[in-house]
Specification:
The complex is a heterodimer. By secondary structure, chain A is α+β, with helices and mostly antiparallel strands. Chain A has nine helices and twelve strands. Classes of the chains: A alpha+beta, B mainly alpha. Chains A and B meet through helix 1, helix 2 and helix 3 of A and helix 3, helix 7, helix 8, helix 9 and helix 10 of B.
Chain lengths: 339, 626
């Protein structure tokens, strides 16, 4: 008796757990996801509004059509296996009605589509230019008017429109930060323009949306939307030359960096390191993540990355360099000091 | 009375492997297509389960990076080119000559060549797993990811050449369908009496003939880029990656209609029979298929709304894409009106056909979001699209295909599929399908891109991914029941008469399974439902084509008038298979060792020479029909 009760309770708990998972999944959209239905930009909001508009129409059609279908199936079930129903071949008035109704509904949706597209496809004229360059598998951001180059974390001032020029250094990628609006493909040899803007400070998650090879899943990015004052501070910090290492361990890390393969691929302004293949590391210490958003920018994660990049980002162009633990610790100290 | 004079090639009466390898009988070829598609469906299904298993939880390590991309690419390529297209070609091959009262397809040996090209092309493509890795750039193979610089292995070459081989198969089978449907219809079977499955297959065949050259050319250019140093798609040397996308989608979008139109045709056959009514609005349904075919060629750039095309171009393709919804809606309303007022019998084919309508509507409506450019900028390349096209191609095409298999299985094998297992299969497939794919709408809206092998926790994607994986395994269980049902029915299934469903069309007027020559005497057609008329409207014809209840063609033969023409059946031939094998070895030689190239060319030349000189018809000898 007690055991049966326990089993029933276990079953109930499992069912509840199942529904909870479903519920979390469904509500997750709004709560914690980079949801297109939680936009923070004028473009994203216009797109979400169009989504809801089409949703209302299609939901109505869905309910109507499925109800008619189910009604027909259950209402006209054959009771007598020999019965022959009236043989109706068609009805022109009905054909014309549903064809016209569909066409009218679509015309309305198209008109709304055109309106939204015209309003959002180009940034305002006074927008701040930013160049977005997709690489296998990380993002490069250049601010041509400010002389800043950074990677994987885009910093923009709240309320100011950004004119993002999107392109690629190798294969096709797609730049997408859902809460800031629709995506734009990064195509080698082409420069596509995307209006970015956020009115709400915060950090927004995005990632590459076009299959671009082995680590397509690992090509993530973040957009930090900061206050205008915060942005100015950030700009000044970024335009400053790279910090000189002061700690002995960091100085040792500097030596490792400059003597190993690192310099072939990475730039640190004001040092001999002028490689252009990998991310610019002049102010890498100021970023919150490393490895295209895969890891937090902590000494532990940085050490993991330096030890074996392809284990974290399969196919990574940065190979396993065979660094000793001491070299890694020194490099971590140096890179972390590059605020 | 005289027995029918049937020119029976010796091999027809044989069983055994050779009789299948040399067959030119459209029914056997149809079965070969369906068996091949079933085999590849197992592979494609396992690939789907691997994908779902990997995505069950965040940061999973089951199928990572390149391996995931290979499985992803092969799942898409397999399901499109090796499952949906060939199974529709197989059902068409088996059923359409019977439906239109023909003795075979117009070009029987070309037909055999087509099925072997499909089998060998499919095996060739899958051989890549064993020879250095499968293609891994997606079924759409966007340049420049497919360029030699970024894809150094032979996977992409297997993909290019495999699709070329399969393209040859599709083109030959389409030529055959067009010729057969336009030229070999029974007396009285005018185009406006043509069964809808034949109508939609006709439209699909034209789509293949006009769309395939585009991808064939694109694949050829890509091959040149990879191996002869041309730069068609290389932006660094003045080429354009978008050229690939235009050429690919000019094929790729008609391709989705290629996969859905015959499925709509099947549903348009099944719903009337099980509602005991004629198809409502026959003309509207038939012409809307033609309209979908035409409009289908003007929508390709809706796959490219995010590549930076000008607003006006995007607007044109947006409008054209929405326009497709008109003929599609016409069909849906006519299907519902067909059931309306009928005497509906809930047999398994009906369940799947009705579910097709219910699910296809969801896929069609979600398509409107994708046609609306600004919404598409958000949801393209996300799981929303994965949900959308699985509702059209699985909830749509695959449900209709399963309906067609339950419907025609008794005709093909002479045995029913089991009704109780059929219902269990239906329940599992319906529940599993919706559990797998409905949550993907939400995943896409929640910002999850397609084609990622892993994702971080904390983005609100965990629960829905878990749910989708559970659904996928329920779906797989449904197919296990399906295959069990088929195996069981082949062995001990309830025998089926000639006309098990009280059918409307000509295929139900001959025995189950039909004799090699299909009809002892070609029936004369007076309406859109020749079989129904024979049974219910008083016989407008002097006498029945056959005794429907017995389904014995020989009996019909005894009714044949004196002195009639002998029935000629084409001779079996091994050369179509030899030519197909030659082409496949040629392709293998291009990727691996040149020796295969030489063998392939020799086999091809030999096969062509022997094919050309072998007479189509054997000597006529008397086969006594009693």
């Amino acid at each position: 008796m007690r055991r049966a009760w326990g089993e029933a309770r276990g079953r109930a708990r499992r069912w509840a757990g199942g529904f909870l998972i479903l519920g979390i999944g469904l509500t997750g959209c709004a709560a914690q996801s980079p949801s297109i239905l939680a936009p923070v930009s004028p473009k994203g909001r216009a797109e979400a509004e169009l989504f809801w508009f089409i949703f209302l129409i299609t939901a109505g059609v869905f309910v109507l059509v499925e109800t008619l279908l189910l009604y027909a199936i259950f209402r006209f079930r054959a009771r007598d296996p020999q019965a022959i129903p009236p043989q109706i071949h068609g009805n022109n008035a009905l054909e014309i009605s549903w064809t016209t109704a569909t066409a009218v509904g679509l015309a309305v949706i198209f008109a709304m589509t055109w309106r939204t597209m015209a309003a959002t496809s180009q940034p305002p004229a006074d927008a701040l230019p930013v160049k977005v360059i997709g690489h296998q598998w990380w993002w490069e951001f250049q601010y041509p008017t400010l002389g800043i180059t950074t990677a994987n974390e885009l910093v923009i001032p709240a309320g100011r429109p950004i004119r993002a020029t999107v392109t690629s250094a190798d294969v096709i990628h797609s730049f997408w930060v859902p809460q800031l609006g629709g995506k734009m493909d990064a195509i080698p040899g082409r420069e596509n323009v995307l209006w970015l803007q956020s009115d709400v400070e915060g950090t927004y998650y995005g990632q590459c949306a076009e299959l671009c090879g082995i680590s397509h899943a690992n090509m993530r990015l973040r957009v930090h939307v900061v206050s205008e004052a915060g942005f100015q501070r950030w700009v000044e910090a970024q335009r400053a030359p790279a910090a000189q290492p002061t700690e002995p361990l960091a100085q040792q890390g500097y030596q490792v960096f400059m003597s190993k393969a690192c310099v072939g691929c990475h730039t640190i302004d004001g040092t001999p390191a002028q490689g252009k293949v990998g991310p610019n590391l002049t102010h890498v210490g100021s970023r919150t993540t490393i490895a295209a958003g895969l890891l937090q920018n902590t000494p532990e994660d940085l050490a993991r990355w330096l030890d074996n990049p392809p284990a974290i980002k399969p196919g990574s162009l940065m190979p396993r360099l065979g660094l000793t633990p001491d070299e890694i610790q020194a490099l971590v100290a140096y890179l972390s000091s590059l605020k | 009375m005289a027995s029918p004079t049937v020119a029976m090639p010796r091999v027809y009466e044989e069983r055994g492997l050779l009789s299948w390898l040399t067959t030119v009988d459209h029914k056997r070829i149809g079965i070969l297509y369906i068996l091949g598609a079933g085999f590849f469906a197992l592979i494609g299904g396992l690939e789907a389960l691997l994908i779902r298993t990997q995505l069950t939880v965040p940061n999973n390590r089951v199928l990572v990076g390149e391996a995931y991309n290979q499985v992803l690419t092969m799942h898409g390529t397999t399901m499109i080119f090796l499952v949906v297209m060939p199974v529709l070609a197989g059902l068409g091959n088996y059923v359409i000559p019977l439906m239109i009262g023909a003795r075979d397809m117009a070009y029987p040996r070309l037909n055999a060549f087509g099925v072997w090209m499909f089998w060998l092309g499919g095996l060739f493509l899958n051989l890549s797993f064993l020879l250095g890795g499968a293609p891994d750039a997606g079924w759409f193979g966007y340049a420049p990811l497919t360029a030699k610089t970024f894809s150094k292995g032979t996977g992409i070459d297997f993909w290019i050449l495999g699709l070329q081989l399969l393209g040859i198969s599709s083109i030959t089978s389409s030529i055959n369908f067009v010729s057969t449907i336009l030229l070999l219809r029974a007396p009285g079977l005018s185009l406006n009496r043509l069964p809808l499955f034949a109508w939609t297959t006709l439209v699909t065949s034209f789509l293949i003939l006009f769309a395939m050259p585009s991808i064939s050319a694109a694949l050829f250019l890509l091959f040149l880029d990879r191996h002869l140093g041309t730069h068609f798609f290389n932006p660094a040397a003045g080429g354009d990656p978008l050229l690939w996308q235009h050429l690919f989608w000019f094929f790729g979008h008609p391709e989705v209609y290629i996969m859905i139109l015959p499925a709509m045709g099947i549903v348009s056959e099944v719903l009337p029979v099980f509602s005991r009514k004629p198809l409502f609005g026959y003309t509207a349904v038939a012409y809307s298929s033609v309209a979908i075919g035409f409009i289908g060629f003007t929508v390709w750039a809706h796959h490219m709304f995010a590549v930076g095309l000008p607003d006006v171009v995007n607007a044109f393709f947006s409008a054209a894409s929405m326009l497709v919804a008109v003929p599609t809606a016409i069909k849906v309303f006519n299907w519902i009106a067909t059931i309306w007022g009928g005497a509906v019998r809930y047999r398994t084919p009906f369940l799947f056909a009705a579910a097709f309508v219910a699910l296809f509507v969801i896929g069609g409506l979600s398509g409107l979001f994708l046609a609306a450019v600004p919404v598409d900028w958000q949801v393209t390349d996300t799981y929303f699209v994965v949900a959308h096209f699985h509702y059209t191609l699985f909830g749509g095409s695959m449900f209709a295909i399963v309906a067609g298999i339950y419907y025609w299985f008794p005709k093909i094998t002479g045995r029913f599929l089991d009704e109780r297992l059929g219902r269990l299969h239906f329940a599992l497939q319906f529940i599993g399908f919706n559990l797998t794919f409905f949550p993907m709408h939400f995943l896409g809206l929640a910002g999850m891109p397609r084609r990622i092998y892993t994702y971080a926790p904390g983005l609100g994607w965990e629960g829905l991914n878990l749910l989708a994986t559970v659904g996928a395994f329920i779906l797989a269980l449904g197919f296990v029941v399906f295959f069990m049902n088929i195996a069981r029915s082949l062995a001990v299934g309830e025998p089926a008469p000639a006309d098990p469903w009280d059918g409307h069309t000509l295929e139900w007027l001959t025995a189950s399974p039909p004799p090699p020559y299909n009809f002892a005497r070609i029936p004369v057609v007076r309406s859109r439902r020749p079989a129904w008329d024979l049974k219910y409207t008083g016989n407008p014809h002097p006498r029945p084509v056959v005794e429907i209840t017995e389904g014995d063609d020989r009996k019909a033969g005894e009714d044949a008038p004196e002195g009639r023409e002998p029935i000629h059946l084409p001779a079996p031939s091994i050369w179509p298979l030899v030519i197909a094998a030659g082409l496949t070895l040629f392709a293998l030689g291009l990727v691996t060792h040149w020796i295969f190239l030489v063998i392939g060319v020799l086999m091809f030349a030999l096969g062509m020479a022997r094919w050309a000189t072998q007479p189509l018809f054997p000597e006529v000898h008397e086969a006594h029909g009693s």
